Amino acid sequence: MIQRQKGCNDIYGMEAKVWKYVDQVIDALMEKYNYNYIRTPIFEASELFHRGVGETTDIVTKESYDFVDKGGRNITLRPEGTAGVVRSFIENKMYGDPNQPVKVYYNGTMYRYERPQSGRDRELTQFGMEVLGSDDPLCDVEVISLAFNLYKMLGLKEIKVNINSLGDNESRKAYREALVKYFKPHINDLCEDCKERLEKNPLRILDCKVDQDNKLLKNAPKVLDYLNEDSMARFKKVQEYLDILQINYEVNPNIVRGLDYYNHTVFEIEAKVEGFGANNVLGGGGRYNGLVSQLGGPETPCVGFASGIGRLVKALELEKVKLPIIDSVDLFLMYVNEEEKKYALYLAQELRMAGFIVETEYTGRSLKAQFKQADRLKAKFTCVLNSEDLNNNEVKIKNNKTKEEDIISLDVLLYYLDEQLGTDSDMNDDCGDDCCCEDGCECDCHDGEKCSCHHEEE
Ligand code: HAM
Question: Of the candidates 59, 67, 250, 365, which lies 20 to 30 Å from 352 by C-alpha distance?
Fold first, then answer.
């Protein structure tokens, strides 16, 4: 049997429904913040990631999926979304659009040849957002708060934002020198890669996966001590704005991020969920004011963020968050003979086009087995089509919960279902058992805790 590749996943069944729901919430929230959807290619010229993400990053040196295509071009499957968005921003001259900053979001597969483990896949799905064309700390905070609010909206309870600043070029240079001075006498205590990093990019030593438990790293100089006045003032502004939004954050000087393009604000957002394990970072991002010019565009300050959907879905599952996912059908149409089957075919289409979720029989089951199938699909109504009723322009329809049966004229079937399914809150029990909503309540809550009606308090 051919099996899926290591670090790749098949997403199906209920898990796929959760993914789709998460995608819908992302789309809806991005719309509210006025971010436009962008799709960039899954593969790009390798040079984009070498120059963009950084020659000394793990993502480029160890984890990239590179190949030479039939035309002899060096190609890389994208390991992340930012570099592609920046290339597109430059190539499509988005910097010339009077509507600045450009705010975009994406949601797609990325590839990293990592050692597969829980929370670390080789094929991963990330959604992310980028704001290109503003240096205002307001944008840093908008991005952080958007991500924070998304996780909260989805129902995760304990979300923590870790923030840090890598400062401007001057601060980064001073910090680089301090790191070289600190690590040089201990070079033999570092792994082989870090020995090389010391020369090329000492900041990368701090997020080395091999040396991560090395005491030397823990006691290394902290970047915040090397920020110049402007960079520190900027960082304070970010914190002031975060306070206004009451975001739960902590200044964590150990956050340096694994990609080279960052300066000023960097951050990671983690979920405190029991059983989540070591890879509990849901997403991360930061400011990258130099990347557009480095890739051949005009000087453009930018900030962005990305989150792994796989990790997010896992956090929701571990925290047993009840999501308003439809896993039932409105009506199951049953039939026995060919004439009834043809009517089922016709009626199913009519009702589906009118907006109902309708299922019918496809495998020649007996009527008894069709009832069982309707139960498996949690059908709210069942209808056994029979020739006699159809000749009278009627159908018998049964409420599967109350077991009550009605004989309905086909002319009013749509209205009947609309009324039964639309307003009967007993039928629409998405809110869960502990919801305080009463019959006829029109609030669109989906979880007792989040219900905005508060009937119990009234
Ligand atoms: P990143 O920290 O490399 O940042 O990845 C962001 C998120 O993607 C991680 O926090 C994690 O949730 C998910 N992720 C990364 N690698 C894996 C993996 N192997 N398996 C599962 N999930 C993974 C970036 O990619 C930057 N482009 C973020 C950014 C956007 N910075 C500015 N703009």
Answer: 365
